[in-house]
Amino acid sequence: MFMAYPDIVILAGGLGTRLNQAVPDTPKPMAPVNGKPFLQYLLNHINTAGFRRVILSTGYMSEKIESYFKNKYKELELLYSAEDEPLGTGGAVQLAFQKVQTPHFMVINGDTFFRINLDLLFQKHIEQLADVTMALRWVEDASRYGAVEFDRNNRIQKFTEKSEMPKPGYINGGVYVISSRFFKAQALSGKFSLERDLFESKLDSGNTYGLIFNDYFLDIGIPADYHRAQTEFHAFEN
Fold this sequence. Notes:
By secondary structure, this protein is of the alpha/beta class. It has one domain (7-236): Spore Coat Polysaccharide Biosynthesis Protein SpsA, Chain A.
């Protein structure tokens, strides 16, 4: 059964503390990659996939994002949800959720490029009647991110913390589909973490799924990976 594409919330309000030495006085999603803001690559990918409505959750130097992209980018309608103070990933999504108009919505980290089939993630979420469906990625060293464990039916069972010991595993790729009804029913408020206070705390319900993708993945949160993007993103320019 076909369902209209969900609204997408992009978390674009991070301070970018670690990246600040490479791109000072710039919100992390606006860090230039080959002369274009990192966020532009995300929007290109979303636009090509056929989605049409994006809510940009902004915070630090939000005016730079809004003045650059304004209210439309290619075929995308852009809306803004600006934090007056840092609310954490959960609080930021909750604020942006006030503008969501679809029965399900997608959340994408604004400092990560995981070039997956967004439509496939959404369709699997609908098929499984999931509350949350998370895009997962295998990496050789999951210590920087923390690992995700799941059963043979792809139901997520456990999240493990970041560690100092390098170890391979599946990680949270920073792309999620969430049921609007489920999110609203949690009645969370204020500053909170989407990952800890929503995803982890609701694992007992057994309705949080993972979907594995092997597509290109890069988190520009540290200078070394940001510099990698300058070379690797040539393949994604359009």
